[in-house]
Amino acid sequence: MRTVKVIFYKTLFARAILFPAILLLCSFVSFGAKVQVSFRTEQSKYKEGEMASNVLRVVNGSEKKINFYLSLAIPEGWTCTKSYDALYQLNAGDSLFIPVKLLLKGKEDGSTSYLVSAGLIAESNKLQFASASWYLSIESESNWVAAADHASNYFINNSDTSSFSFSIRNTGNAIEWYSIKL
After folding, report:
1. Which of 65, 73, 77, 111 fits as disulfide partner to 117, beta carbons 3.0 to 4.6 Å?
2. What is the mean pLDDT of residues 27-32?
3. How many other β-carbons are positioned within 10 Å of the β-carbon of residue 46?
4. Strand bridging mode 35-39 / 51-60
């Protein structure tokens, strides 16, 4: 009798929870596979302080209309010029182009790539079903300022030593190493 209850419990569990969950997952995977999302340019270069822009392309290859929100993951300190909390609706077989413009914080490290991710979030279950990545490289700007305390030094009273000082400062946007030979 106990064995029958266990089998019945498993069967009831399978009917009530497991099968619907598997069907939901399968429909979610097939839905996501038929929707394509990509940035027009996957990699781009910018100078410090410039505005970065790209276009996100969404293609609905499914047979159903989709409703989704756009979620952007951007580096800390950057801002979007537009709010992306709107609900997007895309008919079956249709495409949508969404401009993405970012204001950089102005003190980015040169010779560094930053990642921007765009995710499509389903209106119905709030799950992400498609995503695209965009890599932004900041060009390295080499800029050094050097100053010495004297333009000339003299050896006074037949001395073989003289003192001087100088300062060197990296005002560029990348870490650079230097060596001094005297």
Report:
1. 73
2. 45
3. 17
4. antiparallel
Question: What is the spatial distance between Cα 116 and Cα 89, in angstroms, rounded to a whole number?
Answer: 23
Give the span between the Cα atoms of 138 and 173, in whole angstroms. 9
Question: What integer is the mean pLDDT of 84-100?
Answer: 94
| pLDDT tens digits along 93-146 | 999 999 999 998 877 777 788 999 999 999 999 999 999 999 998 888 787 888
pLDDT (tens digit per residue) in 51-66: 999 999 999 999 999 9
